[in-house]
Specification:
The protein has three helices and no strands. It is an all-alpha fold and 90 residues long.
Length: 90
């Protein structure tokens, strides 16, 4: 799984219980807090390394779906705004 620098930074911050990077979008904020919980469970012994890897894959799948859903949502909003503006001109 190829990750951007931002995603790597988010994962490192969550793994070391540091504050998340500033100015995260909603999807990246959600990712940080989900990873923070995952790493806390692993450190507490609630998860094995193998279970942790599987959970991490699930978290990134959820993150990717959220990013795509948000992208679609913003595109729909842009279309609605454009149609409202065009209607206002008539």
């Amino acid at each position: 799984m190829m990750q951007s620098e931002l995603l790597q930074e988010i994962e490192r911050a969550a793994a070391s219980c540091k504050k998340p990077p500033e100015g995260l979008a909603p999807a990246e904020s959600m990712l940080y807090y989900m990873l923070l919980g995952l790493f806390a469970c692993y450190r507490s012994g609630s998860l094995t390394a193998e279970d942790g890897k599987q959970q991490k894959l699930r978290i990134y799948n959820i993150y990717n779906r959220y990013v795509e859903d948000y992208r679609q949502f913003t595109e729909i909003c842009k279309l609605y705004q454009q149609r409202i503006r065009e209607g206002a001109k008539i």
